[in-house]
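Input/output pair, single chain:
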Amino acid sequence: MTDDSTAPRSNRRFWITILVIAVVFGGLFLLGLLPRLRREKALNAESKTAATAAPVLTVQPARPAPDSTRIELPADTKSNRETFVFARTDGFVKAWYADIGTRVRRGQLLALIATPELDQQISESRANLGLARTSYNRLRSVELPGAISKQELDEGQAQFAAHQAAVNRLTALQEFRRVVAPFSGIVTQRNVEVGSLVSTTNAEGAQLFKIEQTDTLRAFVNVPQNYVPSIRPGLTTDVLVPEFPDRKFAGRVSRSAGALNTSTRTLLTEVKVANRDQKLLPGMFAQVRFNLVRTTPSVIISANALVPGGTTPQVVVVQNNKVHYQPITPGRDFGAQLEVIHGLKGGELLVINPAETLQEGQEVKTRLAEVKKPESPAPPAAAPRFNDPDRPRVSSPLDGRANP
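Output:
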């Protein structure tokens, strides 16, 4: 026979077990939920604080450009004076006395031309002159009044004068048998040989010699428009050639074209270089280094300060902890740095890498950009080629370094 009192006791134990398990799980759930709720509350509070707090922007001051800048421009070198020597009479080369490389003085004999045809013409002209003189003297000797008219006497005198002028002209041409140097210099071309036929023409290839004066050379430079206001006669320069990497040749601006080339917007400028030791040769490739004084003030900024996009160049300036978009007029591009011609005066705090979300008048906080220093010295760079077309021709105004 079963005891009826055991059934209620079993039911109580079951429900007590269920209740204990529920309490245990409930406690564990609360232990895990409460910290999570606290973290979410803290994160929400931080997000709300961050949303209302002023953003911190990295800024860098704009720097006024120095009073001078240095540029290097390619140049073509020519002799101070150069000319081709042509024959001024027809004939054959009888002899020549100067070859290429020969230094000659003004008036020195270069070649002698034989002129047989001219000599014959002079003989004929002198014979005609003698006949005209005799005829004229005969007319003058007539003393009988009315024997000859005044017109006949004048015609005789005119014929005599014409034949005299013809003789003088041919005699002057005969002097051109001697080909002489027009000025002191060096013979750089000789295009004649003994027996060569020469004539009075200046056609291509008809020149007998070429003479150049190399004690002073001329370097012709095309100066870009933005540097033209600083170019003036007397400005000193340095002329550099790759064959003498350790030497600078002193030059001086002698003149300029006075007008810009409409195709390139450059000013043709002539620089004279003393060449007494004859180290420089005409035709050498060279570069002219100018140290130019700025005629208008400008400002140098970091290239990262430009606002990306947009049709108008502008930067973000922080004034009294507020954002202001400032339009600018950029000048030369130095890569990491940029020249500003108008829009900034220098000293303004410019936002580096400005975000598109910045709004005009927004309150912000600033921190100066840090200049990173290399942890270890960089390996030495290879020496640049002197005439490398990719080599920068203008040194950055603020880095204080010069082009080698």
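Helices lie at 6-52, 116-141, 150-175. The radius of gyration is 47 Å.
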